[in-house]
Amino acid sequence: MNNRYAALKKNDIANGEGICVSFWTQGCPFHCKGCHNPSTWDPEAGLPLPVDYIEQVCDALIENGVQRNLSILGGEPLSEWNKNLVNELVTKVRIYFPHIKIYLWTGFLMTDLLITEDSVISSILNKINYVIDGLFEIQKRDLTLKLRGSSNQNIYQKINNQWEKIS
Ligand code: SF4
User: Fold this and answer.
1) Are 167 and 144 in contact (CB under 8 A)?
2) In whole angstroms, how far apart are CA 165 and each of 11, 132, 146, 149, 154?
3) Nearest in space to 77 (alpha carbons), one of 107, 42, 39
4) Which atom of ligand 1 approaches the CA of 149 most closely?
5) Residues in contact with ligand 1 (CB, 6 Å cut-off)
6) Per-residue tens of pLDDT for the chain, all 167 residues
7) What's the CA-to-centroid distance between 158 and ligand 1, angstroms?
């Protein structure tokens, strides 16, 4: 498990609905051309992961009595480096905050994730509400898209325990 992370933002209105706590993992194997966050590629860069990172996120989710949603970005949250810490995070957050929305951005495709035999990935998918999938493709870059950087990327929402592509 990676003991690094990229960033934690307690009041983010750019990623997800409403005010979100955004957590950026460190380490991405994809190296998309035009990635806006190349500093997150190296799994050994970034910041030391605090031992109480889950508590810090949970505290931030209700700081000042304002309920927030949670966004998990990269880096690649589902990479081998990060999937275990992300699973621990969403598992604990879901216990304490059963009704908030949890968003996750990944370069992997949902069509592959939904048939994975990786129990950690399946556990993460069980806890979250939205997945924005696909690599960033600079020739398909579109700044008008909600939650996405390029038009090949998709938004999936879990509705009645089924994942549906909504955009
Ligand atoms: S998957 Fe995301 S973080 Fe990784 S290189 Fe592509 S755009 Fe950057």
Assistant:
1) no
2) 27, 10, 14, 17, 7
3) 107
4) 7
5) 28, 30-32, 35, 37, 40, 74-76, 107, 135-136
6) 789 999 999 999 999 999 999 999 999 999 999 999 999 999 999 999 999 999 999 999 999 999 999 999 999 999 999 999 999 999 999 999 999 999 999 999 999 999 999 999 999 999 999 999 999 999 999 999 999 999 999 999 999 999 999 99
7) 23
Distance from the CA of 66 to the center of ligand 1, in angstroms? 30
CA distance linking residue 58 with residue 144, whole number of Å: 31
Atom of ligand 1 nearest to the CA of 106: 1
Token pair of 70, please? 């949670």
Ligand 1 atom nearest 40 alpha carbon: 3
